[in-house]
């Protein structure tokens, strides 16, 4: 009964997010829209805590969860209430960074969960298949090995897909986190504009390194899992290199986030924050895909697409194009560097 | 290749949701007045805080002796909660300000 109530709650949550965004875009209803989305979020959070089942079991560690929620609520309310009206955009940037960091952390935990897969899990698959095979034998003239192979290849496909989503969530979340912190620092004046000659080349290189790292990680994890399946007992379970690659990608993503925002001028910061906001939306949606969780998925993707459009609208309102804001600044930085 | 195709096939419903949500997101806010840009950004910021649900699941699944998952999950819950709660409260304050302006 719990899970079916939870799926209804998630449906309600998704609808409140859509309604909330819709109402937020009209002056008369904006405040109510915000409250409606907040109510939906509240429902979704508490529904998850009490009704979510994983592998047929309810969640545990309630004391940790509630302690985290309590600390987060106190800090969030205090920060939001104390902040001066003029400092609100930078506060939003900080909150956005925290969401990004949250998504990245989830990815890190899930990655560790994935690569500490017990090799025996593949051996454990065999008995149920044997049993099923016995039952089906009279009906089906299939061979057992094919059944086992199918199940194993399904699991492998799943593991690969999960890894891809984990990586995406981590990279986007980390870029968003680092970028938001820099944007926050720039708006409150603690970080100055900083650019050097050839910065866009460095940025491209860092991005290329992230992509290469991701591909290497996907391939090497895939071959490792396959080796594990082929000979579960005698594969030495050493994931050190794979861990190393994963954390290097995390580090590079943070570096990229910093490099991405550093050269952009302070006046363009709201546009950048809006862009990073939609990044975090996508990172949240990756989490939704990973957990098969519709409310995270719709919430994240909605913010991702609405945020992107909003970013473009904000640029238009400032009579600039997004390309101008993002790339023009590099040109400006270069010109300044050349002049200096 | 087979792996990828079967993965996509297994998750085809989620992929539908993603694509429809992309269009919905664009439609829903395409006619927003410029004064509401910042509050809308802030509201959207609070909504993507829904990532907190992932953090809760991580935390709630973690075994008692898996300290890495417990510590990172705990941090993620705190950060996500700040995102959600702070986001909604800041948005409400911004919009309250608009209301005040209107009355004057």
From TrEMBL, chain B:
InterPro entries: NADP_transhyd_a_C. The chain crosses the membrane at residues 12-34, 40-60, 67-90. It catalyses: NAD(+) + NADPH + H(+)(in) = NADH + NADP(+) + H(+)(out). It is an enzyme of class 7 (translocase). It is a multi-pass membrane protein. It is found in: Cell inner membrane. Pfam families: PNTB_4TM. Its EC number is 7.1.1.1. It comes from the Bacteria. The transhydrogenation between NADH and NADP is coupled to respiration and ATP hydrolysis and functions as a proton pump across the membrane. This is proton-translocating NAD(P)(+) transhydrogenase. The lineage of its organism: Bacteria, Pseudomonadati, Bacteroidota, Chitinophagia, Chitinophagales.
């Amino acid at each position: 009964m719990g899970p079916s109530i939870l799926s209804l709650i998630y449906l309600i949550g998704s609808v409140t997010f859509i309604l909330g965004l819709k109402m937020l875009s009209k002056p008369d209803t904006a405040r109510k829209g915000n409250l409606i989305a907040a109510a939906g979020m509240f429902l979704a959070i508490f529904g998850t805590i009490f009704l979510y089942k994983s592998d047929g079991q309810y969640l545990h560690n309630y004391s940790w969860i509630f302690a985290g929620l309590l600390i987060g609520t106190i800090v969030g309310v205090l920060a939001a209430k104390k902040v001066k009206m003029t400092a609100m955009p930078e506060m939003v940037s900080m909150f956005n960074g925290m969401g990004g960091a949250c998504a990245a952390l989830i990815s890190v935990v899930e990655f560790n969960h994935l690569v500490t897969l017990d090799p025996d899990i593949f051996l454990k698959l065999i008995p149920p298949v044997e049993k099923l095979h016995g039952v089906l034998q009279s009906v089906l003239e299939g061979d057992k090995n094919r059944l086992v192979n199918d199940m194993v290849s399904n699991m492998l496909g799943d593991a690969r897909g999960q890894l891809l989503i984990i990586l995406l969530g981590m990279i986007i979340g980390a870029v968003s986190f680092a970028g938001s912190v820099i944007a926050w620092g720039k708006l409150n004046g603690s970080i100055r504009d900083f650019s050097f000659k050839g910065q866009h080349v460095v940025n491209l290189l860092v991005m290329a390194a992230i992509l290469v790292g991701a591909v290497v990680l996907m391939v090497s994890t895939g071959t490792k899992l396959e080796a594990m399946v082929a000979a579960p007992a005698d594969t030495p379970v050493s994931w050190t290199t794979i861990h190393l690659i994963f954390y290097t990608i995390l580090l590079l993503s943070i570096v990229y986030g910093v490099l991405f925002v550093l050269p952009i001028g302070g006046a363009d910061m709201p546009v950048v924050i809006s862009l990073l906001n939609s990044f975090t939306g996508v990172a949240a949606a990756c989490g939704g895909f990973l957990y098969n969780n519709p409310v995270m998925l719709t919430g994240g993707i909605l913010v991702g697409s609405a945020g992107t459009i909003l970013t473009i609208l904000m640029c238009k309102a400032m009579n600039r194009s997004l390309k101008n804001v993002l790339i023009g600044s590099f040109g400006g930085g270069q010109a300044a560097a050349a002049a200096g | 290749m087979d792996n990828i195709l079967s993965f996509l096939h297994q998750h085809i419903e989620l992929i539908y949701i993603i694509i429809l949500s992309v269009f919905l997101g664009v439609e829903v806010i395409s006619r927003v007045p410029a004064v509401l840009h910042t509050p809308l950004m802030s509201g959207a910021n609070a909504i993507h805080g829904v990532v907190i649900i992932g953090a809760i699941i991580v935390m709630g699944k973690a075994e008692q002796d898996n300290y890495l998952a417990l510590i990172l999950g705990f941090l993620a819950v705190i950060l996500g909660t700040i995102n959600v709660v702070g986001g909604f409260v800041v948005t409400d304050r911004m919009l309250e300000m608009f209301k005040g302006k209107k009355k004057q």
